[in-house]
Amino acid sequence: MILTVTLNTALDITYRVRTLRPHASHRVTEVTERPGGKGLNVARVLAALGHRVTATGFAGGRTGRSVRDQLADTSGVVDALVPVAGATRRTIAVVDQTTGDTTQLNEPGPVIAPAEWSAFLESYGELVSSAAAVALCGSLPPGVPVGAYAQLVRTARAAGVPVLLDTSGEPLRRGVAARPDVVKPNADELAELTGSHEPLQATRDARRRGAHTVVASLGAEGLLAVNAEGRWRAVPPSRVLGNPTGAGDSAVAGLLSGLVDLLPWPARLARAVAVSAATVLAPVAGEFDRRTYEELLERVIVTPHNAAA
Amino acid sequence: MILTVTLNTALDITYRVRTLRPHASHRVTEVTERPGGKGLNVARVLAALGHRVTATGFAGGRTGRSVRDQLADTSGVVDALVPVAGATRRTIAVVDQTTGDTTQLNEPGPVIAPAEWSAFLESYGELVSSAAAVALCGSLPPGVPVGAYAQLVRTARAAGVPVLLDTSGEPLRRGVAARPDVVKPNADELAELTGSHEPLQATRDARRRGAHTVVASLGAEGLLAVNAEGRWRAVPPSRVLGNPTGAGDSAVAGLLSGLVDLLPWPARLARAVAVSAATVLAPVAGEFDRRTYEELLERVIVTPHNAAA
């Protein structure tokens, strides 16, 4: 199985309103709720791609109960979330139906107690030993040490299990130094980590900091991957317009899916780009348009990347 | 006891953000949750004024459970909410800490099934028979007939129990025709009911439509009350600045409190204005600043209102 870690799980709530105007009162016309947090999106996409997935991290309170109930209804995902006293955070995405714009409100998440973090580490150690790959995704809730991902990367590497890290800021900086197999920053996260806004230079710098493979997600410009075997650029055959929320999580799922299927890197990148683009056409993160995915899979353009290009 | 009816109960959630900008992502710095819906605010203020209160209406789902848990911790309020299959709605108030402005997002509320409405009517009939007064407050959830308040007014009047109605639109129009003892519209609701933006004329018109006493809440200009005994204007001694959310609900609580204490109308209005103004100084609806209330109680200016004024 593939293990996904979501330390800051969320109940993702989407509101549709006619037009969002600050200082006004709005009638919400439609409410949807989904399990959220990047790792849970990755888990749902992996399960839809046919993989067995175990999802761990933290869940608590009535919002955590809602997340777990919905996970129980998700075929292919085993719930190994660790219970905590605090309530799982909500995120609210307010979709303006006139402009299509989304305004996001993210609660901070519950404070994780030291005993809860210890309980997680114990459970994680056991789960890693039977995992084919591990994904560490998203922000850290309050109370979890900033070096958390570095510790989780080391545990996975000590067990000989490939580990992918997708986070930002200081947790990314420390996690990269623990030498994960793959990191998947977006352009902003990469620039924050390396100080460089030039993707190829920044990607190389991220490798020097410890990541074996760096896969930078560059929005409409697809993926740029660099490792000891080579450099590749992977782009969809045409621009896909839609809701980009969750596209990065789907790229992570595609990379892991290709990894456990032992695909060569160009085919892994093609899978990641295809499922990511197919997510842009789905209404919510963690879901994708299957027909688009299958159509794109053969048509993603993967080219060796020339340093001078 | 005083019976408050809140058909569209809510879990009121308040988010604080640094600056609200449409299309941006926001980190919520503070989250608070309170039982909401106008009638539950009235119930909490009445309890704080020393009355025994029974709160009925509907509650369902995990949000309904949160509302009921918090009511259980509210001294003086007996929970007689009728369970429903749908989930109690959330309302989100997003407070911009830079400007102090509030942006409101209101979920529509669960659809009430015919059997749930019947169960409520049966329970209401029993509760009314032991009530000293009834308050019918707020909007109707989907599935409840638009003539609901008219029916609830008639039941209370048939039992000889004084009934106050605080709603808007068509439910108010129909409810007024059932001859409630008191209606408490704000300026907008009164104008919508009568077509007149001139408060005294509109207040008289609302009386002609069936209400025995009309108490119009005019924001900073206090209350204007008209009935067969006379006309009064009640205003605070000075303007109170703060958060007006819940001020109208507190005015309803003050009116009912004065009614069951058999105060003459001018003293009822003074109580309503004092507790309403003291609510403006409290951070959330359903609460008030007790010291301000006690100070204002003797200083509210109540004057007979001259038709020519």
TrEMBL record, chains A, B:
Per the UniProt record, one Pfam family is PfkB
Q: What is this protein called?
A: 1-phosphofructokinase family hexose kinase
Specify the species: Streptomyces lannensis
PROSITE patterns from the xrefs?
PFKB_KINASES_1, PFKB_KINASES_2
Q: What SUPFAM superfamilies is this protein classified in?
A: Ribokinase-like
Q: Which PANTHER family match?
A: 1-PHOSPHOFRUCTOKINASE, 1-PHOSPHOFRUCTOKINASE-RELATED
- Asked whether the UniProt record includes Nucleotide-binding among its keywords, one would answer yes
InterPro entries recorded for this chain?
Carboh/pur_kinase_PfkB_CS, PfkB_dom, Ribokinase-like, Tagatose/fructose_Pkinase
State whether keyword Nucleotide-binding applies: yes
Keywords, alphabetical: ATP-binding, Kinase, Nucleotide-binding, Transferase
Occurrences of domain Carbohydrate kinase PfkB (ranges): 17-283
Q: Where is the signal peptide?
A: none
Q: Which family does it belong to?
A: Belongs to the carbohydrate kinase PfkB family.
